[in-house]
Amino acid sequence: AQKVTQAQTEISVVEKEDVTLDCVYETRDTTYYLFWYKQPPSGELVFLIRRNSFDEQNEISGRYSWNFQKSTSSFNFTITASQVVDSAVYFCALRPYSGAGSYQLTFGKGTKLSVIP
Amino acid sequence: DAGITQSPRHKVTETGTPVTLRCHQTENHRYMYWYRQDPGHGLRLIHYSYGVKDTDKGEVSDGYSVSRSKTEDFLLTLESATSSQTSVYFCAISQGGGRDEQYFGPGTRLTVT
Question: Is B48 in Cβ contact with A110 (below 8 Å)?
Answer without folding.
Answer: no
